[in-house]
Prior knowledge:
The chain is of the alpha/beta class.
Amino acid sequence: MRIILLPLAWIYQLILLFRHFLFDRGIIKSTAFVTPVICMGNLSLGGTGKTPHIEYLIRLLSKEFKTAVLSRGYGRLSKGFLIAEKGMTYREIGDEPMQYLTKFTNITVAVDERRVRGIQKLKASQNPPDLILLDDAFQHRHLKAGLNVLLTDFHNMYPNDYLFPVGRLRDTVSAAKRANIIIVTKTPLVLSPFTRRRIEEIIKPKPYQSLYYSYISYGNLSPLGEHSSIPIPRKVSNILLFCGIANPYPLQDFLKSRCSDLITIDFPDHHVFSKKDMQGVVNEYENILGRNKIIVTTEKDAMRLVDSPYFRMFKNIPLFYVPIEIKFHKTAELNYDKQVLDYVRKIRKNS
């Protein structure tokens, strides 16, 4: 199948290379801003962990600076620029902005499919931010961010992948040269020097690029919504996991060590759960034998579930989500924090 699809990938590559040529030569202009702008993105079609890495930067930067997060708002029904407010649903702003809005009360969350316009609107608002975090905008060449952070999955690093539709890359490998920081995500808790050398040989970072390694830290299971008031059993025999994210394998590995049997129901990334979907999950749960059984989903999926008119179907069913945070190996956290803070402080001082 890959051989059959290769001609399509070659055509796609030619289009991308021509597009980058136009931007690199200045034929198509990129807009830069005096305000510090940090872009978080990847070269693949998702699944590298952008959302928790944005949340890491929110925790780091919002203590000192008025921080705004600008996202496309994937899957939302609204159009144009919109500042998220309490009472809005994921249908209006998207599931990832909804997650930022729910977890952080000291930041501004905005959505706009045109990032340049979104930044201009934020700068012109009554309470303009000190800095702007761009969620998933590495491929948006119309915008020139001050600091580009590129994420790549440890299990599928971009140099080993292929362009869509043969692989999962949405941009060329050569586009990685625009990154200031490269983070290898979802690494094991123990990362040997040998593994680090192997990664460096694969990625081959430029002299001006910093390379860091992060891993996922899972929190305790949290009940989802008022309908999930049933406490988690001390001993769990069966876990039914259902989720609509690009790469659920790290969560699966985490849950496997906490039960005797794990059943997974996969949905597409950003999937909007229908009544039929939820009924299927409930039926699967009821067919599991034994008492010590629960249903688990992801934090991002939870944003779409709680606003669903069919969420009531989980009443009296133990439904939980797993909160996650990003951690860095060894001294990488200090170096990463310093690099980001130094950039923001320098730009703020010069402006």
